From TrEMBL:
GO terms for molecular function: homoserine kinase activity. Keywords: Amino-acid biosynthesis, ATP-binding, Kinase, Nucleotide-binding, Threonine biosynthesis, Transferase. The gene is thrB. This is Homoserine kinase. HAMAP family: Homoser_kinase_2. InterPro entries: Aminoglycoside_PTrfase, Homoserine_kinase_II, Kinase-like_dom_sf, Pseudomonas-type_ThrB. Coiled coil: none annotated. PANTHER family: AMINOGLYCOSIDE PHOSPHOTRANSFERASE DOMAIN-CONTAINING PROTEIN (PTHR21064:SF6), AMINOGLYCOSIDE PHOSPHOTRANSFERASE DOMAIN-CONTAINING PROTEIN-RELATED (PTHR21064). It catalyses: L-homoserine + ATP = O-phospho-L-homoserine + ADP + H(+). Transmembrane segments: none annotated. Its EC number is 2.7.1.39. It is an enzyme of class 2 (transferase). Belongs to the pseudomonas-type ThrB family.
């Protein structure tokens, strides 16, 4: 359960009194997620999500995330809407953390996506990129190639606790990616964490997207590579070409990929695998005392990285000729 910060009843009631949402009826910690503390909030006005932002979210970035959700929702990409308090502010403070109430979205996440889900995701990702194209704010991706080596160096000496040979593999991969990382690809707002747990479905239709707290300005094709890694491997961590093709084809029907994006795709897929390998690795070794959280296994992304390292070019993903 991702609850790092416990909320005291009296504090919550006082916080809620600054909103026009009626009385508190219930508030329960949410079992999923690893980044922030999330609660289901039921008030006289209905169901909401209360989020207290934790370690990786800089308070200064919150206006970017909250404005982006409003921007996308206004352009038909269903996502939570920040609820404003009586002073007209979305961002508040609770239990010493920055806190926001957002609208509750119906739908459920798919734990084992099928080909049709990957196709639906591809189309929705392209819609998100197109809808974000006129979003005026920018946010640098702190978890892109420049951020990976400093992140790894915080606990590189413990790499062998997670997997034999991990330190040498990551060092060599960082060397490779720092030399070959593509620049100047078409860029704009990307979600950067659109894993199955952040996409809600009703049947085979996507009903909403959540968790925009890694959103940033970066290469669109990098977002696609993140999704390919998260959606198109089976439980034994084997790449599923039919799912990859469904994702990429549906995306390209709405936003065609340039030759440069296709040529860069294998490198982007390696970087996307390393990024989640590293954050999972750091979290695995640093579970805060008393936190109710189940860290995600970094070795899953080690296996995905190894797959991409063995891919000779973009044809592995059905791209190029
Ligand atoms: N707007 C919403 N409507 C309905 N449920 C939501 C909403 N926002 C969050 N949830 C629920 O809370 C859970 C955790 O939310 P979220 O993914 O934002 O947390 P997180 O800690 O940032 O997670 P992650 O590990 O994916 O970064 C979701 O899996 C979902 O069940
Ligand atoms: N989606 C991430 C966790 C949130 O950053 C992962 O699965 O590692």
């Amino acid at each position: 359960m991702a609850v790092y910060t416990q909320v005291d009843d009296e504090e919550l009631i006082a916080f809620l009194a600054t909103y026009d949402l009626g009385p508190l009826l219930s508030c329960k910690g949410i079992a999923e997620g690893v980044e922030n503390s999330n609660y289901y909030l039921h008030t006289g006005a209905g169901s909401f999500i209360l989020t207290l932002y934790e370690k990786r979210v800089a308070e200064a970035d919150l206006p970017f995330f909250l404005n982006l959700m409003e921007h996308l929702a206004a352009r038909g990409v269903t996502c939570p809407l920040p609820v404003k308090n009586c002073a007209g502010l979305a961002l508040g403070r609770l239990a010493g953390r920055p806190a926001v109430i957002v609208t509750f979205l119906d739908g459920y996440s798919i734990h084992h996506p099928e080909t049709a889900h990957c196709a639906a995701l591809g189309a929705t990702l392209a819609q998100l990129h197109l809808a974000g194209a006129d979003f005026a704010q920018r946010r640098r991706n702190a978890l892109s190639v420049e951020g990976w080596r400093p992140l790894f160096s915080t606990c590189a000496s413990r790499a062998e606790e997670v997997a034999m040979g991990l330190r040498a593999l990551v060092d060599a991969e960082l060397d490779h990616l720092e030399r070959n990382w593509p620049r100047d690809l078409p860029s704009g707002v990307i979600h950067a964490d659109l894993f199955p747990d952040n996409v809600f479905f009703l049947g085979e239709r996507i009903s909403g997207l959540i968790d925009f707290y890694f959103a940033c300005t970066d290469a669109y094709a990098y977002d696609l590579a993140i999704c390919l890694n998260a959606w198109c491997f089976d439980a034994e961590l084997r790449y599923q070409p039919d799912k990859g093709a469904a994702l990429l084809d549906a995306y390209r029907r709405l936003r065609p990929l340039s030759a440069a994006e296709i040529a860069a795709f294998p490198t982007l897929a390696r970087g996307a695998a390393l990024r989640f390998l590293l954050t999972r690795y750091v979290d695995w070794l640093n579970v805060p005392a008393g936190a109710l959280v189940r860290p995600k296994d970094p070795r899953e992304y080690l296996a995905k990285l190894r797959f991409h390292q063995s891919a000779p070019d973009a044809r592995v993903y059905g791209l190029g000729s």
